[in-house]
């Protein structure tokens, strides 16, 4: 039986991916009790008033400090970021620069040490556990380098999980999942388990799972990093197509400069700040092919 809570995979989870896997679990959490208060600001604060030209994301004065046995690690240096609605922004940078940490903070999977992180009218930095879970489920689609699909479930069941976690009836959730698998051209792989799919197909299922709740923001952390060049290009093309057709605002972390340069903007994370690298040729807010 499909049970979204009994979801820890028995096999197939890399040790190094365990923390990311826990993040996937947190992405599919849903707290019905929080739903009734979802439209209010965090901790009872009034939400920021939006104007027509308000950005989709506005980060100001972001700091993240880790205290380790070897001392204090200051990851961001008053980092600022403004992303307009409909932009597809690539973030590049050396390993360890803090790209994943930045996405985790934007997606309410981690909390900053200082600063404000507005996604639309919500200051994500102020969200507590329950509201953060509700925010993630409602607003954020997250894709990782590794797909973290649950090996014992079919592709269709995997895509249905975030809907079931929200309390949507199984028949409806499965029908919506089937529609999403059609969108990522995997109609004929619905009943396949992840182990019966190619790497690119697994990532397309993960993309469908990320978007099935119709989030406004897509955060993708090296979504093509584990794929060969041709498959990576195809998955990237699919991300761009979905970004456009679903009018998403997307932030994509990648080490692949070819793919990054096809986004509307490229930012390099270095020295704790985001530095504009280049404007993509023919940049539009919803990049076409
Ligand atoms: N919980 C933690 N405690 C202490 N240090 C941490 C913690 N999480 C991450 N770091 C450190 O923060 C830095 C940034 O990590 P992050 O995963 O964001 O890098 P990244 O830019 O995504 O790197 P990569 O390209 O290799 O994925 C790293 O040096 C890492 O060791
Ligand atoms: Mg990373």
Structure overview:
Helices cover 32% and strands 21% of the residues. It has 289 residues and is α/β, with parallel strands linked by helices. The chain has one domain: Rossmann fold (3-Layer(aba) Sandwich). Strand 2 and strand 3 form a beta hairpin. It binds adenosine-5'-triphosphate and magnesium ion (MG). The site of adenosine-5'-triphosphate has 12 residues, from strand 2 and helix 3.
Largest sheet: 6 strands, mixed
CATH architecture designation: 3-Layer(aba) Sandwich
Which segments are poorly predicted (pLDDT under 50) over 5 or more consecutive residues? 3-17, 30-45, 280-289
User: What's the total helix number?
Assistant: 9
Tell me the CATH topology: Rossmann fold
Strand sequence of the main sheet, in spatial order? 8-9-10-5-11-12
Q: What is the 3D form? A: globular
Cα(first) to Cα(last) distance is: 41 Å
CATH class category label:
Alpha Beta
Give, in order, the helices and strands: HHEEEEEHEEHEHHHEHEHEE
Topology, please?
Layout: H1 18-27, H2 32-35, E1 57-63, E2 65-68, E3 71-74, E4 79-83, E5 88-92, H3 99-106, E6 114-119, E7 122-123, H4 129-139, E8 140-143, H5 155-165, H6 170-183, H7 199-211, E9 217-221, H8 229-245, E10 249-253, H9 257-260, E11 265-270, E12 273-279
Parallel strand pairs: 5-10, 5-11, 8-9, 9-10
Antiparallel strand pairs: 1-4, 1-6, 2-3, 6-7, 11-12
Bound molecules: adenosine-5'-triphosphate and magnesium ion (MG).
């Amino acid at each position: 039986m499909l049970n979204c809570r009994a979801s820890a995979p028995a096999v197939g989870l890399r040790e190094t991916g365990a923390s990311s896997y826990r993040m996937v679990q947190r992405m599919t959490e849903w707290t019905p009790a929080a739903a009734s208060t979802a439209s209010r600001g965090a901790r009872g604060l009034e939400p920021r008033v939006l104007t027509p030209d308000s950005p989709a994301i506005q980060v100001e004065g972001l700091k993240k400090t880790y205290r380790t046995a070897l001392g204090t690690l200051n990851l961001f240096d008053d980092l600022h970021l403004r992303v307009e609605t409909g932009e597809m922004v690539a973030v590049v940078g050396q390993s360890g620069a803090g790209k994943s940490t930045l996405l985790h903070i934007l997606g309410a999977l981690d909390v900053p040490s200082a600063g404000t992180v507005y996604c639309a009218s919500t200051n994500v930095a102020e969200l507590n556990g329950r509201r953060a879970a509700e925010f993630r489920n409602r607003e954020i689609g997250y894709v990782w380098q590794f797909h973290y699909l649950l090996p014992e479930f079919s592709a269709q069941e995997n895509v249905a999980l975030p809907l079931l976690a929200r309390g949507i009836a199984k028949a409806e959730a499965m029908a919506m999942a089937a529609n999403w698998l059609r969108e990522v051209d995997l109609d004929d792989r619905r009943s396949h388990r992840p182990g019966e799919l190619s790497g690119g197909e697994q990532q397309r299922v993960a993309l469908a799972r990320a978007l099935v709740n119709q989030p406004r923001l897509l955060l993708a952390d090296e979504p093509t990093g584990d794929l060969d060049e041709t498959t990576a290009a195809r998955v990237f093309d699919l991300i761009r197509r979905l970004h456009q057709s679903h009018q998403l605002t997307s932030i994509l972390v990648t080490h692949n400069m070819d793919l990054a340069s096809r986004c509307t903007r490229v930012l390099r994370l270095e020295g704790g700040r985001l530095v504009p690298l280049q404007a993509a040729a023919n940049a539009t807010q919803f990049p076409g092919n």
